[in-house]
Amino acid sequence: MDAIDEAIIRCVVRDARATYAEIGKAAGLSPSAAKRRLDRLVATGAIRGFSAVVDPQAMAWHTEAFVEIYCTGNPTPAALRKALDDIPEVIDACTVSGAADAMLYMLAKDIPHLEQAIQRVRSTTLVERTESAIVLSRLLTRPRL
Q1: Alpha-carbon span 69 to 81, nearest angstrom
Q2: Where does the UniProt annotation place the signal sequence (predicted)?
Q3: Range of the domain at 74
Q4: Per-residue model confidence as pLDDT tens digits over 92-127
Q5: Burial code of 26-42, b = ≥16 C-beta within 10 A, e = fewer?
Q6: pLDDT exceeds cutoff 70 at 56
Q7: What is the Cα–Cα distance from 57 to 55, expressed in whole angstroms?
Q8: How many domains does the chain have?
Q9: pTM of the prediction?
Q10: Which member of 34, 37, 77, 117 has the greatest number of CB atoms within 10 A?
Q11: Domain containing residue 39: CATH number
Q12: Is residue 47 a contact partner of residue 12, using CB atoms and an 8 Å limit?
């Protein structure tokens, strides 16, 4: 990966619907050269896909929380992912170092909805307990690279 590839990636992270002309301009390429480079980034897996970023406020899901998961036994990350996969309020899940086994980012309509979602997380056989921190205000959000 070189500086041109990085410029292309920055452009499509900022706007996944950017035209080849816009991508080319950002990377110093012609539109056709930008298309070839973008296609190569997709083919090699450097870019795994394109997605829409939905404003949670538009869905009227205003309550955010970070939830630490403490597991029973020593489940694999794949088993933990499978247990959480059917809970749509879990937006992000990562295994972490430290006392907790995993950290979730959850989004819900309101506190009762969040409580129900956390109960579904706790009801999986892999989870012994959880600890939650509710987001009061969002200070900074950046697009992911």
Answers
A1: 12
A2: none
A3: 56-134
A4: 999 999 999 999 999 999 999 999 999 999 999 999
A5: bbebeeeebbebbeebe
A6: no
A7: 5
A8: 2
A9: 0.67
A10: 34
A11: 1.10.10
A12: yes
